[in-house]
Design brief:
Blueprint (H helix, E strand, L loop, with lengths): L15 H8 L5 H62 L15
């Protein structure tokens, strides 16, 4: 595992303490607190923007999902129907000759 991955915020191996000790080892407490405040506000703004985006497109996503589900169901139904027709075509035709000699009609 590279040290760089531990410095990427999006990485699952991100290490805040290692990041601060290596990248900001000469920063003052005041500077770190200001950075924290800036990052907190930035995250809140991004979260709010994302929430608006999801809310404004939610109906479209639901309709798209329903459409995709309907297409998949239609394809499955058609596939079963075609498989059944193929199966019937593969069977030899059977002539009805009535009951065999040992059976009563």
């Amino acid at each position: 595992m590279t040290l760089g991955n531990r410095f990427l915020l999006s990485s699952t191996t991100f290490s805040p303490s290692l990041f601060l000790s290596q990248v900001h080892n000469n920063a003052s407490t005041k500077s770190l607190l200001q950075g924290l405040d800036f990052l907190s506000r930035s995250i809140e703004q991004k979260s709010a923007s994302l929430k608006v985006l999801v809310e404004s497109n939610f109906e479209r996503f639901v309709r798209a999902k329903a459409t995709i589900d309907n297409v998949i169901q239609g394809m499955r139904t058609k596939g079963r129907r075609l498989k059944g027709l193929h199966h019937q075509a593969a069977l030899p035709p059977q002539d009805f000759q009535g009951p065999s000699q040992g059976e009563q009609a």
